[in-house]
Amino acid sequence: MVKANKEKSDPKASISDSDNLTQKAYIGLRRMLFMNEISPGHKIHYRDMAEKMQMSPTPIIHALKWLEFQGLVRHERNRGFFLEPVSLDEINEIFDLREQLEVGLLPKVLENLNSNRIEKLRCILQKYKTAAQEDQHKQKTMAAVEFHIALASISNSLITCRMLRTLFDLVYLKYQVDIFLPRPAKDTADYHQKILDFIEAKDLKGARQTLSQDIRTVRKVGIDALIRRTEEKENVIF
After folding, report:
1. Collapsing DSSP states into helix, strand and coil, what is residue 82?
2. Residues pairing with 75 in the sheet
3. What are the pLDDT digits (tens) for 159-192?
4. CATH of the structural domain 13-83, one choice from 1.10.10.10, 3.30.160.20, 3.40.50.1010, 1.10.760.10
5. C-alpha dihedral over 138, 144, 145, 150, to 10 degrees?
6. pTM of the prediction?
7. Tens digits of residue pLDDT in 89-105
8. Which residue, 185, 186, 193, is CA-closest to 211?
9. Which among 1, 49, 48 has a CA at the least distance from the CA of 25?
10. Which of 3, 5, 35, 125 is the most buried (most CB within 10 A)?
11. Helix (H) or strand (E) holding 164
């Protein structure tokens, strides 16, 4: 008796492959947002992106739905996906919440501080300085974000840190990194060094004040840049 051929497709493998493609598309779209390859307010041509990433449109659409859930893109029925336009009110709200969350975590940060965690912050700060010296703006921005996330993570407040990551995504993916170019790299390095010095000395008041100043300075630079861009567009004569 001949045994039946059991070489059937595994549905679990199919689901896994689909998930992997969606994850690949999601990472690719995030990179494109970070590299300013998609402009705020513009339509996202997912078929072109699918061709660029060498995959079908389906995982691209699934990834865009993830980004929609995060508030990074907007879907309009029968029109497609769009990167949300600039909103100064939203930026102010993001930075207000950032300051509340990050400064509010500092007491727990000091409680959980140890030499290994201090050394990790030092390494990240050095990574930032190296990127600044080499004029690598994207890497510099990533290191600055990494410093803030690593500092907050010391508190072991997982939900709050997840919220912070979402806020950083909204700022640096939706509103684009280049709006923060006017801020001198030395300012960021100085602020981060002072924050590190204060937490190492267990000086909660000094750490709170410096962290607040750092966040408010970044906010001002970004908002000023966005206002200038808006004014320049309005003054363009065709």
Report:
1. strand
2. 81
3. 999 999 989 988 888 776 566 666 778 889 999 9
4. 1.10.10.10
5. 140
6. 0.78
7. 888 999 999 999 999 99
8. 193
9. 49
10. 125
11. helix 158-169
